[in-house]
Amino acid sequence: MLIGLGVLATSVGAIDLAIIAFLICALSIGFFLINFPKGSVYLGDCGAYFLGFFIAALAIALPARHSEISPWASLVICSYPVIEVFFSIIRRWRGRGRSAGQADRLHLHSLLHRRVFRSNPKATLFILIPVSGTVLFAVIAVDQPLYLQLFFVLTVFAYVSAYRRTIRSFIASSKQARPARTS
Fold first, then answer.
1. Does residue 150 or residue 100 have the better pLDDT?
2. Which listed site, 32, 33, 97, 159, has its alpha carbon 20 to 30 Å from 40?
3. For residue 64, what pLDDT band results from cuts at 50, 70 and 90?
4. 94: exposed, middle or buried (C-beta count within 10 Å: 0-12, 13-18, 19+)?
5. Pairwise CA distance, residues 55 & 20, whole Å
């Protein structure tokens, strides 16, 4: 996401925003290289919120300062976390009256890690590849709002489909793990 925002910033001459995007990206890559694959250093909520804040600030600042960048490009670039947060709020709100801010382990990447891949690096790659595709599409179609809107809707459907398949797999494996009841 940061690379995509940095490329867009560079393309419109927003060097200040590009430097911020690429600097935070380089710091994040450094952290992940040191931490890969065991994950022995925990980024934590503060680190995740820090990254999310800067990504959101850049995604808002770019189209606000440069009209040639569609706000939809920023939304498509940030589509995975935006969709994940939106569906997490809905899931928590609908399920047992829990607070939308209460943590759970039902995010798509958490389910993939626990039930499908059982390996955090594999789950990360499974998410990273489509996210990279959305970023690439947004950078290419930056000035085509209709294509970006359609692509965002397609991304929402892809997320919902992947989530449902993962939940079904999760439920099926849970049922198989339970011993049969005898009367």
1. 150
2. 159
3. very high
4. exposed
5. 10
- Is 0.90 surpassed by the pTM of this model? no
Mean pLDDT within 31-56: 84
CA angle 134, 139, 145 (to 5 degrees): 85
166, amino acid identity: T
DSSP 8-state secondary structure symbol assigned to residue 107:
S
Residue 68 has a CB neighbour count (10 Å cut-off) of 12
User: Sign (positive/negative) of CA torsion 25, 31, 37, 41?
Assistant: negative
d(CA 147, CA 151): 6
- CA-wise closest residue to 89 among 76, 98, 79, 77: 98
Q: Which residues of 102-136 are buried (b: 16+ CB within 10 A; e: fewer)?
A: eeeebbbbebbbbbbeeebeebbebbeeebeebbe
Q: In the chain, what are the domain boundaries?
A: 1-68, 70-183
- For residue 162 the two structure tokens come to 């992947």
Half-sphere exposure (CA, 13 Å, Cβ side) for 156? 11
